[in-house]
Amino acid sequence: MFSDNSPHAHREPAARTGRPSPTRKDLAMRKSLCALAAMSLLGGLALTACGKSDSGSTTTPTIGVILPDSASSTRWETADRKYLEDAFKAAGVKYDIQNAQNSTQTFQTIADQMIANKVSVLMIVNLDSGSGKAVLDKAKAAGIGTIDYDRLTLNGGANYYVSFDNEKVGELQGQGLVDCITKNGTQHPVVAYLNGSPTDNNATLFRNGYDKILKPKFDSGDYVKGPEYSVPGWDGTDAQNNFDQMYTAAGGKIDAVLAANDTLGNSAISVLKRAGTNGKVPVTGQDASLGGLQNILAGDQCMTVYKAIKKEADAAANLAISLIQNKTPTGLTKVHDPEANKDVDAVLETPVAITKDNVKDVVADGFIAKADLCTGDYAALCTAAGI
């Protein structure tokens, strides 16, 4: 069984379903798992379903993945799902990827279903740490290996965590905003914050990162700290309504916006367009989304952060696959969980700042298709940007 100290796949016998007889590869894998289980017994570990069930069938190791939503960012369905599926298919492993659509109830229902179906590894992107921990606790109790994907579940106790260096993401955003303000030549600019969801630990890490860059500017008086709002669920409509109120209350005296992702950045840009100040007020973003890149090409957004999601998804898929194959994961680092006061084994990828000068790199990487980006009025802008 999986434990906090030794994540090995947990499998149970399944009733005969009319599947064909096991192949030599299946038998070899089963033999390997049984040998590992036998060696693990002295350490209090056990793998079930090494042999056939009473009905003569075996359970195929399955990787379960729960994505958070479709609204906070397009990445979850257009990128993460695709890249995870591609990796699992290439490895020939069974998988089940579902989306909670921003509902903690749906999230838990999906998890209960996957646990009942005896997935060998459960990979989650939590909606908040409380509901995420409840799911991880159930999975661990069932002997299932657990991976926090993209977001760390605070005090969740997942066996592994795969993401980007999220504090570095925030640093890139903060420095990007400083560069844009400097280019504009604005003196003592009022800087507003549109932070990410207060229940997302990544949003906290982003904030830590951009505060490293901007707080010294506020403390010195070079910049003025303006209004800020943390957007529940990264909801774009909520962000736009609240930024509209912030902008009105400030009498239009907001000179720059640190927006934690492209969705929130676009919310601010929508308000600025109505005021006729879009392109004059620097706005940051993150995710290198199609809309974010088009806003950059149009001059309405000064930068975004590209997180090569394929690298993240491939790292998570490879980790999950290694677990069901009883291989020891390699290339791990440690991330500290402040609520549990424990370190979590992790894989962290490196983010990249994107401005108009290197939008072409995102296209060249295959993350965004030129045909999608360079449509209509954006065609000439793409040409000017070397795309």
**Range of helix content:** 40-55%
Give the radius of gyration.
23 Å
Can you count the beta strands?
12
What's the structural domain tally? 2
Q: How much beta, percentage-wise? A: 15-25%
The CATH class designation of the largest domain is Alpha Beta
**N- to C-terminal distance:** 51 Å
Q: Roughly what is the average pLDDT, rounded to an integer?
A: 88
Total count of helical runs of at least 4 residues: 13
Strand order of the largest sheet: 2-1-3-4-5-11-10
Q: Please write the string of helix (H) and strand (E) elements.
A: HEHEHEHEEHEHEHEHHEHEEEHHH
Largest sheet: 7 strands, mixed
Low-confidence regions:
1-58
CATH architecture term of the largest domain? 3-Layer(aba) Sandwich
The CATH homologous superfamily of the largest domain: Response regulator
CATH third-level topology of the largest domain? Rossmann fold
Describe the structure.
The protein has a 7-stranded mixed β-sheet with strand order 2-1-3-4-5-11-10, sandwiched between helices. A 3-stranded parallel β-sheet has the order 7-6-8, with helices on both faces. A two-stranded antiparallel ribbon has the order 9-12. It is built from 13 helices and 12 strands. The chain has 387 residues and is of the alpha/beta class. The protein has 2 domains: 175 residues, Rossmann fold, CATH 3.40.50.2300; 172 residues, Rossmann fold, CATH 3.40.50. α2 packs across α10, α3 packs parallel to α4 and α5 runs parallel beside α6. A hairpin with a 4-residue loop joins β10 and β11.
